[in-house]
Amino acid sequence: MNRKKKKEIDGKRIEGNEVYALVICVSILLFAPIVVSQPIPVDKSQVEAWFNGIIKPVKERGKTLSPELVEVETEPRIIKVMQSGGGEFNTITKAIESVPSGNAKCVIISIRPGSYKEKIKIERNKPFITLVGDPKNMPNLTFDGTAKQYGTVDSTTLITESSYFVGVNLNIVNTAPRPDGKMVGAQAVALRVTSDRSAFYNCKIIGFQDTLCDDRGNHFFKDCHIRGTVDFIFGSGTSLYLN
User: Fold this and answer.
1) Residue 21 has what pLDDT?
2) Which domain holds residue 84?
3) What average pLDDT does this structure show over 202-209?
4) Number of independent structural domains in the chain
5) Domain holding 11: CATH number?
């Protein structure tokens, strides 16, 4: 999709990467049942066509979704984050704080390019949040927390605890030093996913030790690059990784 393409929602102009987020925002809602009825092809060359054949826009899947979930996708809220100003907020944390507890609507936080050094947490009482960046100039979400400072699972750059979280076009990085075998508490998690029914598309998740804590819940990763050295994917989540 051309990211310059724009559409109107409730009188607000939204850019291409936000339109893309709207399309995929609920692409995982019924993904697990679909997988059961339509097994993933053994031939890798057929996987992309299989995926595109079962994941449809909300309007095409309305009858298969519960009325509550269809309502969630009606009139989504768009929040723009720009470090240089011009958006509603200049940090991701402030944008998340603006989402009310008990949120019942799709909230798309559109993050403009830049490096955001923040320790980000989306709490359990704020479901239906999507973080989306520009695929041609993905924002960097960075922090340098370590297990020595916070404990392993809380050393994380980005923690998602809320259901129906979606991350799109993001670099999620823990910039703590590479462990040398002597450092105590050198584990440094980039992403911890404790939320249920969450998905990540075209994200780079980078660290050295314990990069991705796939903690609990059902998760979906597509077209993601996950890099580390030791235990770079760990946890008790039930997840599907494609490409």
Assistant:
1) 53
2) 7-242
3) 96
4) 1
5) 2.160.20.10
